[in-house]
Amino acid sequence: MPLEKDKPSSGSDESSLRRRSGPFGAISAFIDKTFVITELEARKIRHDPSDLITRAAQPALWLLVFGQVFAGIRAIPTGSVPYLDFLSPGILAQSVLFISIFYGIAIIWERDLGIVHKFLATPTPRAALVLGKGLSASLKALSQAVIIYVLAGLLGVKINFNPLALAGVLLVVILGAVLFSTLSLVIACLVKTRERFMGIGQLLTMPLFFASSAIYPISIMPRWMQAISHCNPLTYEVDGLRSLMIAGGSSMYGFGLDIGILLAAVAVLLGIGALVYPRVAQ
Amino acid sequence: MINPWGRSRNSMIILETKALTRRFRSLTAVDDLTFAVEAGEVFGLLGSNGAGKTTTIKMLTTLLPPDSGTALVGGFDIVRSATEVRRIIGYVPQMLSADGTLTGYENLLIFAKLYDIPRAEREKRVRDALSFMGLSESAEKLVHTYSGGMIRRLEIIQSMLHRPRVLFLDEPTVGLDPLARNAVWEHIEQLRNQYGTTIILTTHLMEEADKLCGRVLIMNRGKSAVIGVPAELKAALGKKDATLDDVFVHYAGVSLESGGGYSGAARERQTEQRVG
């Protein structure tokens, strides 16, 4: 085939593309790209929202069955707060955890297909790829929050509808979902196969859940378990939710500390995620 | 010094590698690879399974850092200026890379945004791309309802939205039937003629290499076995009516034992199943 000489740069139009420089440019590019990735995932959810509906069954069962039974036998000391009121924020935190912790398997699937490779070959900041995925997990988590609010309301839980409190709950749910989905993504990037990932996911979920104040107060735990629960970010997520979601709820550690710890954990995991994410394609 | 690409030296080099090397444990997948590609060329990387084609592409697209050696794409170093390289390349992986759970339009829209195509131009760029590949009517359908050939065309145009200077196509027609393959070939040639894009493709179909590539590099066990213009390589064999297949067998050291191993074979067949 003869090779005609082409004008070398005729096909390129980088000059017309938006170029951003300096620290502000980098930050605005990071934020833009993060939301593009979130938009991508949101569009997927819109095409097939069935997952959201089946996912709602689990928190419903916990509230209706576990919650009603344990409220009836009054086995768990929750002070002046009725047990169902105590439990509802815990179940919200739990369903955020459950919906996020297996999120990473999508990465392995996309790696097997080649989708990850294509994204990594774009100039998108790595941390934006990771955070965008994490924020999309929070979209799913928010749909769970709505369902849990409705169920809890039907069960007679006294909910705090103060707009500031609702905004606080929104923030905690988003942070929790980003945190655990990013943890999941990091694990997926390290283990690289579906089988190992599922094993580790199963192994993590229950200890995270039981070594937190989701379904009983930390004070009734044995001492060694209390120590673990203080290192468990889910404890602070539950604490933040409990202080805002229900009327008369209180925080053990203070809302500021809860948010601070969740933010710090997200930042650390995001950093690790940005480092290990490119490795899935290698 | 001998001019390794056998043509005038005043033309512009868009990509060059120097002693590029990558090991996986004991295996040296790419071994001391040095070559250069001119702007506007369609350049073929040939070799049997496991010869190092995909590893080379992964390094040039910044997905995999080399263990030693360097490569420049558009003058940018693939390690030190990786982000700059990513701005000026397009990449279509061997595996399925369009998202089946989105529509064709959405697949393009997301990439238009990731590649910073200005909002005012975005819609037109995406619609033009769809019509260029004959996908306008299927734009709003989910990609998992597309045929293998349609998916490939979508993936190629997805990587062309930002008008890259270099387009990497890893096995662009693997698993396609002859009709779909021809359509993809036509579109690749059209892209080059219309935009002057430099295209680097890997293939193990000699017919494909012969039809599309101005020059080819045949790899054997991670090393460059020969580089040149297909017609000249055929003539150099000194055999009457030599085909590129003959050239390949002569240089690629084909043996039945070579190949990508179990996981490579599994991945390749999966790809063919999904695409085909």
How is this structure best described in words?
The complex is a heterodimer of chains A (282) and B (276). Chain A is mainly α and 282 residues long. Chain A is built from 12 helices and no strands. The longest helix of chain A is centred in the middle third of the chain and has 29 residues, at 126-154. Chain B has one domain: 3-Layer(aba) Sandwich (Rossmann fold), CATH 3.40.50. Chain B contains 10 helices and 10 strands. Chain B has a 6-stranded mixed beta sheet with strand order 6-7-8-3-9-10, with helices on both faces. In chain B, helix 6 links the parallel strand 7 (166-170) and strand 8 (198-203).
Number of DSSP-assigned strands of chain B = 10
* Count of spatially separate domains of chain B: 1
User: Segments of chain B where pLDDT lies below 50 for 5+ residues?
Assistant: 1-9
Indicate the mean pLDDT of chain B.
87
How would you classify the helix and strand content of chain B by structural class? alpha/beta
Q: Roughly how much helix do the residues of chain A carry, as a percent range?
A: over 70%
Level-1 CATH class name of chain B: Alpha Beta
For the sheet with most strands of chain B, the description reads:
6 strands, mixed
What does the largest sheet of chain A look like? none
CATH architecture of chain B: 3-Layer(aba) Sandwich
Strands across the major sheet of chain B, in which order? Answer: 6-7-8-3-9-10
Order of helices and strands of chain B: EEEHEEHEHHHEHEHEEHHH
- The CATH topology of chain B is Rossmann fold
The chain-level mean pLDDT of chain A equals 88
Distance between the amino and carboxyl termini of chain B: 46 Å
Low-confidence stretches of chain A: 1-16
Helix amount of chain B, in percent? Answer: 25-40%
Quickly count the domains of chain A: 1
Rg of chain B over CA atoms, rounded to whole Å, is 18 Å
What is the structural class of chain A? mainly alpha
Order of helices and strands of chain A: HHHHHHHHHHHH
